[in-house]
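Collaborator request log, item 7. Partner lab (contact: R.S.) asked for a structural prediction of TetR family transcriptional regulator to inform their binding assays.
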Amino acid sequence: MSPYWASINEPWFNNPVARPKTITDERLLAAAAEVIGRKGPGFTVADVAERAGVSVGTVAGRFGSKSGLLQALTRQTMDGNVRRMHAAAAAARDPAEGLRAALLTWFEGMTDPAEAQNHLAQLGVDLIDPELRALLAELYAATERTVVELTRPVDLPHGPPPERAARVLTGLLYGVSMDWSVRPRGELADRLAEDVDAVLDAWKGR
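Returned to partner:
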């Protein structure tokens, strides 16, 4: 049986853009993330195809649908977040610096409030979809587990147990990023660093 898009005869589908010989999932997902940042939840598979320089059929054939594309992007985000956190922690001089560095990898490169707002808008739509909502829960759980792991070796005499500390720290970063997206003042990276330092310094007794 032919795939469902084989019978589509629309101008937007039969995209004449030249296709590169090798098209990776990473290339398509990077295009999707960029398009979401520019257009928010109103983006289409055709927008992603245009940004990636491929046909709509290529994107649809790889991911099946817009929901499938978003699911793949969420899985990639989950894996990437955990890898970056571990890499940042491993490169630090001690566990405390490693925890701080890992936390500050979360929103690296996020400098445009409008882009952040579009990603937040997409998040709101994702929460309506049961499959995407379940994947987001997995993403948050994986991130929190990593923070717990990185918090355990850190000496925080005035802090809560690692599990609670991880909840506080993850909630802090999500909250600061959301606040900055709607009330941008200064750079997000600076805001995150200031607030993370305030919490960690208090837990260290400084």
